Amino acid sequence: MTEVNKTSEKSLSPISEKKLSRRDFFRKTAVYSAGAIAAANVLSPVRLRADDPAIVEEAEWGTKLGDPVTKNLYGVPSPFEHNNTRRTTDLLSSGDAYASVSMCPIHESEGIITPNGLFFCRDHGGTAHVDPNKFRLMIHGKVKREVVLTLDDLKRYPSESRIYFIECPANGSTGWRGPQFNNLQFMKGMMSCAQWTGVMLKTVLDDIGLEDDAVWMLSEGSDNAGNPRTIPVEKALDDAMLVWAQNGEALRPEQGYPLRLLVPGWEGNLNTKWLKRLEFSDKPWHAKEETSKYTMLQKSGKAIQYFWPNEVNSVITSPCPEKPWTNLKKGDLVEIEGLAWSGHGTIKNVDISFDGGDNWVEASLKGLVLPKAWTRFSYIFKWEGKPMFLSSRAVDDSGNVQPTIDQETSAVGVESIYHRNPIVTWKVSANGEVNNVHIRKHHA
Ligand SMILES: Nc1nc2c(c(=O)[nH]1)N[C@H]1C(S)=C(S)[C@@H](COP(=O)(O)O)O[C@H]1N2
Ligand SMILES: [Mo]
Questions:
Q1: Ligand 1 atom nearest residue 222's Cα
Q2: Which atom of ligand 1 is nearest to the CA of 267?
Q3: Which residue in 91, 191, 367, 413 is deepest, having the highest Cβ count within 10 Å?
Q4: Are 39 and 123 part of one and the same domain?
Q5: Cα 163 to Cα 294: distance, rounded to the nearest angstrom
Q6: Domain match, 288 and 327 both
Q7: Which of 348, 357, 339, 443 has the alpha carbon at shortest distance from 399?
Q8: Which domain holds residue 34?
Q9: pLDDT in tens, 217-249
Q10: Cα 3 to the center of its chain, rounded Å
Q11: Tens digits of per-residue pLDDT, 364-379?
């Protein structure tokens, strides 16, 4: 262990070593890097030798000048990353490319932020290209002052930046009765997570004034589909936002440029893109128009009409069918990683099972742990080449526990395809291959 620390100290910060006493150095770094130091040393056994041509010989790109700095005034990923893209499949689209979805490559995602070019895209009438100069937001109905706002008007309000996921409630619906995709991207890629910047809806509503009897809010987009959706005013005043930026730049057209409604943690479909209108009412709309979507039919034959928050959920992203362990040798230490999220609040803990849910160990949460945001979990595991059933189970701070398939079925029946959040299990074979399987049994 002393050896390990010495090496790390040298390689991590020769400058700090000079300036600080050895004790100070460890005090300063231990808080965030002790785990990383240990892990880095055990996880990276020396496998390559110093006669490796890739380290000995001069690389072709080092022998000539690179591109001029003026070449890519808006940067693009390295061509070597060409596989890291959104993807779609006919099995998931409604038959055409306009009312369809392209899925986020969550198996390639790092940390908790989805790059803007990879954020999943779910359109009902194609991606609209809105001229920001012609953009207007009308707020009307049960408000004291009906207004039509420009983008500049909105940007004059004090802004907030917050990290939230968006998940379509149909995420995972394709495979919950039985495995359909052997591919994490198609299984769970109808979600992404970004840092959003905009104004809290409450700030705008406090400014223009809500009538006392305003109970419902309808949002509508200016695209071909419009996507009219209603939410209760409580949610609008709680944490809903009007956002114009995503990860530090203007929203992408696919995410509703120039303005979308953000309804943190709740069903993706409520997050109206290309926003044009907010209307407040004292009655629900479903009496007047068909705006109440995604009801959840139960075993009894009765439907749950309002089912807004996305359930507590998790999935192991490494390994997964696209990221198998076929390159591992027996005895290798490997990091199991995954994503957990809950529309009800903050992820409290994530457990991992190696035997299909009979026994569980606690994973560690990694990096930022924020409400209604992706939360990354990690577990260092010694691979012995033994086949296993690998699962994750998330718990949030509202006390929700991710159910087994059987638990979920007994709670909400089998009819609805929305809000499916049962535990996902990977069958890891002796050769490291990973396959999507279903384990239904009740777990202790
Ligand atoms: N105006 C408009 N808003 C919309 C939609 C749409 O088709 N039109 N699709 C909704 C659905 S069903 C989802 S899941 C989310 C997806 O957001 P994203 O495309 O930014 O990932 O947007 C929602 N907002
Ligand atoms: Mo959706």
A1: 1
A2: 14
A3: 191
A4: no
A5: 25
A6: no
A7: 348
A8: 2-63
A9: 999 999 999 999 999 999 999 999 999 999 999
A10: 39
A11: 999 999 999 999 999 9
